[in-house]
Specification:
Layout (H helix, E strand, L loop, with lengths): L6 H19 L3 H12 L8 H29 L9 H26 L1 E6 L11 E5 L6 H13 L2 E7 L6 H8 L4 E3 L12 H10 L5 E5 L8 H13 L3 H8 L10 H9 L4 E8 L7 H7 L4 E10 L8 H20 L5
Parallel strand pairs: 1-7, 2-5, 2-6, 3-4, 3-5
Antiparallel strand pairs: 6-7
Amino acid sequence: MIAPPPVWVRRVVLGPLVVALAVLMVPTTLMFALVVGAALTWVLPGRLRVVRVLWMIAFYVVWDAAALLAMLGLWIGAGCGLFADRAWYRRAHVRLARGMLALFFWQVRWTLRLRIVVDVADEAALPDAPLVVLSRHAGPGDSFILVDRLLGLAGRAPAVVLKDTLQWDPAIDVLLHRLPSAFVTPSSRRRPGQPGARQTVRRIAEGLTADDALVLFPEGGNVTARRRAGRIAKLREAGQDRLADRAEGMANVMAPHVGGFEAALDGSPDAAVLVVAHTGLERLVTVGDIWRELPMDKTIRLAGWLHPAGAVPRDGAAREDWLFDQWGVVDRWIGDRVPS
């Protein structure tokens, strides 16, 4: 994807452009027609793919603009940023993220007919310690679903490390720069001296509290057959045949990278670890896949396995084996629920 523009362009041009688009869109006949069309998707036969897609795009623009205006109000309330280091300012953004994601997924469930079933440790079971969350990565929007569950069920403020291209979205850009999260530039575009993913993860992990959860996707991207085969090939090229054999035996996941996980535990050695599996979106790889599946009429299932602080080995090689063990659990859980 194209690298995001400089910060001043994103704040002065992209953000106001989204707000202006929403202001122009809401009172128009087009918006009214989309609302009516979206309502009719429950009554009329057929998939009505075009109406659903147009409605979700329009809703997202308005949703993005509303989040930007709310964050502008918080920034003004903080003395135009003078008191942005206060605890209440961060808590306000966590509450805003929780409310905006709840609204977004209410709309997704209605328009795309998605049902989310969660079997993850609840708030009472989570320890009073920082939390590192390791999740598989498969299908569009799975990171949003996971963050929504952490905010809604666990009450944790999510710390996420994302690709810098997501800064094209003004609301995500502003919100995550005000929470303990970061955007990482790929090595192909990284300037000399600019921190990479491991350094960024460790920096964020060092500041974690018992109210936070650092979310990592050890596979590094959505699972595809090509990426899975490439990861196995790289393990063999590095002389790690044993791990490559283990990766070949896991049909539903890709071999995990241990680097970010190690950096997280080095930065926050007292953190508990929550391993998360989910299924329901793995068939949605390309835009064509998503288009064919509309409306999705799917049930997304999440499960989690909590490991207390100190349960993860300290040694690097042992940590990698431990991570592959957990990914084996995830692979078997998925295999029991997804047809071959």
